[in-house]
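Example complex used in Figure S2.
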Amino acid sequence: MNMTRYLAEKRKTIEKALDSYLPPASRKPTTIHQAMRYSIFGGGKRIRPILTLASAEAVGGESEVALPIACAIELIHTYSLIHDDLPAMDNDDLRRGKPTAHKAFGEAVAILVGDALLTEAFRLIATKNFRAKIKAGTVLKIIGEIATACGSSGMVGGQVVDIESTGLKLKPAKLEYLHLHKTADLIRVSVTSGGRVGGGTSQHLSALSTYGRTVGLAFQITDDIQDFDSKQDIGTTLGEKKASYPVVLGMSESKRRATELIDQAIYSLRGFDEKADPLRGIARYIRTRKQ
Amino acid sequence: MNMTRYLAEKRKTIEKALDSYLPPASRKPTTIHQAMRYSIFGGGKRIRPILTLASAEAVGGESEVALPIACAIELIHTYSLIHDDLPAMDNDDLRRGKPTAHKAFGEAVAILVGDALLTEAFRLIATKNFRAKIKAGTVLKIIGEIATACGSSGMVGGQVVDIESTGLKLKPAKLEYLHLHKTADLIRVSVTSGGRVGGGTSQHLSALSTYGRTVGLAFQITDDIQDFDSKQDIGTTLGEKKASYPVVLGMSESKRRATELIDQAIYSLRGFDEKADPLRGIARYIRTRKQ
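Predicted assembly (582 residues):
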């Protein structure tokens, strides 16, 4: 299958849905609604929501039914980027070549836009009727899993450890813990919630959980590798770097680990038929996209 | 009935439940879990969760079943205070006589603690089975209503308008809009979600919505009055003040408006029997507590 075309098509579907779900920029107070749209439509590959749709399809479900959950996950991902970019955190001025939310709207509004997107994510999932195709109890389970993946023992917990580790020399196990929570937890739940909404069995969900965790970690490693390369180019010193795989494990070991994780991810799908080909393709895409 | 005793008893029930629901301070990463507990157990009257329990009782339900929702609302209230206190917002060093979260744990952790508490609130509601006494569909409705009340068209929207209005001379209608969203929306949903979980009819819920809105606005006005008085004492000039009722309407008109709203709140409960006496008592308590 043509992965480039698949990703482009799904991305278009997701952006259309995001546009229809988000409050219009004209709604009062306009500042916050404009800022929400500025942040959501600031580019991005939409990998997480695409994984949700692809996982729903992999277990034999309709990806369209999974759209509200896929979009909610993208709202959560965007909120986490806005808060990570704040002066008190990574203090980044640019995100995907555009001013970050706090540069464009001020720090107070940026904090509130993050808060609003996180809240809107749960509102979106709770208020869609999913064309009556999913039981309310299943939707509650998904909300619980997403909140667990994003909370103090998940994504937010990982971000805390990341902040506390800046400038420290980490051991590999601690680094893996950090990225497992900061990055992989949200990717894993993008996958499992897609599988759940698509009607997957508990066997499906267990396999998808392994796929999500391994792909999520591999995603972070390839990100670190690219980041390391670009910082070498602009001459950042080692001390300025945040905890990353190339710094802790070295470049060749980082690449080996990414390849190993992608192999594990693809192997975890051995019980799935060709409907899981997009998931297999995304795993391969993550390995090759940046190295 | 003895309101002081009622409030003290309910407060104790809520704090015990909060203690049992929140992750232990020893859970990794410990920084975030310690900071969550520091912020949640930093005092506070627990008026919002008490309103949830009292509303469940008012419609003939068991207040115990409403505890997870009541506590979730307190988590949301606490997250909003932590983010409001940040340097980029109100820049407050003290909250209830103790250092604010960013003073105690640093700004980055304070932002993340707010994020974690908001996420935990939805996790709490979604993962409790409510002793099988509430339908999953009803729980979803409650999540949707809470998210709507707290999001970009509710509490967060009100906070944006508050920030944009600082130093400006507001018209009374704009001030009421601001406080309706910043303060009253969360109080209203504390009341209506209690009524919903207690099995209230749509007539009940409509009356409770009026009660919550009027009590919520009255709560903000009496808060503004107390704040104005204390700032007069320490000599804050008018220009430093945020938009408030005494500044916009004058003191005597503010007191008249608070009384009028409390009367409306009590009148809205005319179809309820003596089980709504705690709600009536809380309304009177709000009027008298600070003037």
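The mean pLDDT of chain A is 93. Chain A touches chain B through 50 residues (CB under 8 Å).
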